[in-house]
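User: two proteins, same treatment. go.

Assistant:
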Amino acid sequence: MDFWVLSRFDDVFEGYGDWKTYTSTNGISLSEVGDALSMIQMDPPQQVALRNLVSRAFTLRRIAEMEPRIRHLTGELLEALHDVRECDIIERFAALLPSNVICTMLGIPVEDHEQLRLLTEQILHRDPGTLTPPATSVDAATRVIEYFGSHVATKRKQPENDLVSALCAAELEGRLLDDAEILGFCFLLLSGGNETTEKLIANTLYLLARHPDQRRQVIEDPSLLPGAIEESLRLISPTQYMVRTTTRDVEKHGCILEKGKKVVLLIGAANRDDRKYSEPDRFDIRREMDRHLAFGYGTHFCLGASLARLESRVALEEIHLRLPAYDIDESGIEMVHAGNVAGMARLPIRFTPTPSSRI
């Protein structure tokens, strides 16, 4: 497929930070070409200007204000599992929570949340052994674009207190955003807000189940959960790679990466680089680290990182409060087949609810 790979932490870190050498404008996945709707396939200054607009919805204060609603929704979803005793925790919980949260931010009616979640899954799916999107993926992308086209038109006429309405009213360099720019935001936030947070919640549950001593510590001291989430992000990064294209010849480790070549920034490997982390393949909720690259770095650092961390923390707090005695059915685990996104598509668990777990 004619691409280079950077896998060391320092090289991936540099690839993220040096956008003048490693451009995003030719796609961020091996199966993509340029001219996408999303700002994730732009470079500064255009990317920065658009990012600054949408970042107003993701300030630390705004995210913190969302916690009561996220906690209530988490409780409702877990309440529905009280008498089940075993289920696919992704299908019944981890996939539903982030989808509901991001759809609500976008002002999407509740009755459409599930439809858009399933379409997002179809968009990201790739058949094993090929990077060419299947017909179902192309059809799902078309349907999502059509949906958001209608949604944006509605919000222009009848604005409400949601992100799409705010974007319809926002100005960039003295002009209103056009439909394509708003659609790009919607598409990016829907896919980014659904799949990666879902994988983070499931991955962390899985890791804690595999390390019962550390799970016990988290149950006894929930203040350890943020550390567990960061270690989960490092060890099983939901986004395993990003692609850039060189804008000039680059010399790396005795090799010349020619101008115009695709370069894979291998996040999953960088986050396990033993030059950066001691015993990198070991799960340690008390690990001290200055950073990992699961959310990227620099101008393309994930806008929703704080929201993903909040959703995951609340989800795991409530699970360990209501369903602490859970174990994983390893034989039933299925992995997702996608592009950049990696993780489990199915995670069967068995559990015993606590007597006080009802809402």
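Protein 2:
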Amino acid sequence: MSNKVNIPVWSILGVLGGFPLLSYLLSLMLLERTFFYNLGLDFFMVFWSLICLWYLIQILLIFKILNLSNWSLKDIGYSLNAKKTLYLVTGYLIFAFLLFGLVEWALASASIDAEQLNSLSDFSNITPKTSAQRILFIFTGLVAGFSEELVYRGFAIRSLESHKVNKWIAVPLAAIPFVFQHGLKSMDQFWWFLISGFVLGAIYILCKRKLVIPIIIHWLVILSALLAILQVLE
């Protein structure tokens, strides 16, 4: 692209600083679950609906920033056309709902330990506990996996590289805001997301910046959370 220019530094800082900050502020809702329950609302459904909307906004903002610099998705590693993207999304949904069916069958076929179920209610645990929650989680995971890889691997690493930042320095620089993208976390979760950011970034680099590969891996990690509810089975 002859008219392509470097992504402005202010745009990079705005994304890598602003996106995690707003995500962190949104996560403060986790401390106010009782407020939603008192209103007769399902906190999980409200929270994850807002999270899904926020991820969609992030995608739109990245599109806008790329367009302003005459970049395309292909420039940050996403080269699938609309038809292939539809196949990719369809594959995700088929796998996700097969997993959903397995979880529903397991829950219907065994007794549930109420004490274990209650233990899944601490502020940092957002395991979907009902069928409706699990369905919403599947669609949120679809958007989240694409958005986070688009932002913290494709956009972050490639835009930093455009300013002559070494690729192996760009990986941790992108991984740190990726941690705070996930809001309130325990120290164990902090290290989990930091290491995940390093690993996904390295995969992106080693796979010649083909973004679809870390997207698929990210989706699989997200969907594994559906299985967490099975620990309540007796």
